[in-house]
Amino acid sequence: MLTISVIIPVYNAALFLEKSVQSALQFNEVKEILLIEDQSTDNSLEICQKLASENSGIKLFQHADKGNHGAGASRNLGIEKATCDFIAFLDADDYYLPNRFDAEKEILKETKIDGVFGAIGVEYLTEKGRQEFQEKFKNVSLTTVNYAAEGEEVFRGLLGLTPRIFGTFFHLNALTVRRSAVEKHRLRFNENLRVHQDSDFNIKLSYFCHLKSGIIDKAIAVRGVHDHNRITKIIPYSSQYNARQLMLWQSLYNWAVTNNLPSAYSKRIYLSFKSFDLSQKKGFTKYVNIIWEAVKNYKILKTRYRYHYYK
Q1: pLDDT for 109-158, tens place per residue?
Q2: 57, 25 in Cβ contact below 8 A?
Q3: What is the average per-residue pLDDT within 175-198?
Q4: 238 pLDDT higher than 60
Q5: Whole-angstrom Cα distance, residue 22 to residue 18?
């Protein structure tokens, strides 16, 4: 049987935390739930303490200085403290559905498979949250990929290198991964990224590890959408959005160089990094840089971010 450590970063989640934890407790496979409390300003810490006192499988941790370090650092602490064979993640304002680990039970019998990912749905907890989410993501009710894939195809798909559009994102709530694979490759979240650290982690994970899609046509977990979701506050293609994307692709480019990725991959990552880098430049300098980059590789003018160059 699978043994799973569920890592839940906790920051100002008092309204949602108990439901989140209870959704993980329903599974026999979940042997421990690691609550990583990140200096909340509400009563989340007290709720964590209460939950941990009631169930020995719920373990409460804080950072060494008991300070606020962000979701990436909290997940890293959870990885360090996890003891089960597999790791799963859950945001404190989200919850698992009863089919959460159905695919894993079969797929992870294959020892070559390091991880499985699926689809998540959405629940609107406030009207303002609904409006902001739908404005940004339209009527998308399922965060998933477009077709079943495994191994290198997943990595290539996340980079947009497959003939058929795979999708650029799968949610951490729907990922289950072997702890030994994470440790073998020393995979951790980039703590300098306060947003998009999940995308950064997933892309790196899919390069080093053999991932396989599980249930991708229906939700296995639910994202709670409310007034304080950070991801919905960033307007697509705004200066703030471009700056956050630049940080993500800068992280991935540095990683690609350090790990000497094959040319096709490193070039694709560089194009994404440079396109957002160019979007931050102003005036004459911007156009000089565009021309120089186009001379080196004309494909930069064909990226999906190309229209930023002319603003």
Answers
A1: 999 999 999 999 998 877 776 676 666 666 778 999 999 999 999 999 99
A2: yes
A3: 96
A4: yes
A5: 6
- Token look-up 């490193």 returns 266
Burial class (CB in 10 A: 0-12, 13-18, 19+), 157: buried
Conformation bin of residue 207: beta by default, left when phi > 0, alpha when psi is -120 to 50: alpha
**pLDDT value at residue 275:** 81
Q: What's the whole-model pTM score?
A: 0.88
Tokens of 23: 């959704």
d(CA 301, CA 275) in angstroms, rounded, equals 9
Residue type, 105: K
Contact 129, 226 (CB under 8 A): yes
| Cα 16 to Cα 51: distance, rounded to the nearest angstrom | 13
Determine the residue type at 148: A
Q: Which two tokens stand for residue 282?
A: 């102003």
Count CA atoms within 13 Å of residue 58 on its CB side. 22
Contact 118, 216 (CB under 8 A): yes
Question: In the numeric block, which tokens belong to residue 146?
Answer: 């477009």
Tokens 């719920």 belong to which residue? 58
Contact 193, 243 (CB under 8 A): no
Q: How far apart are CA 193 and CA 309, in angstroms?
A: 24
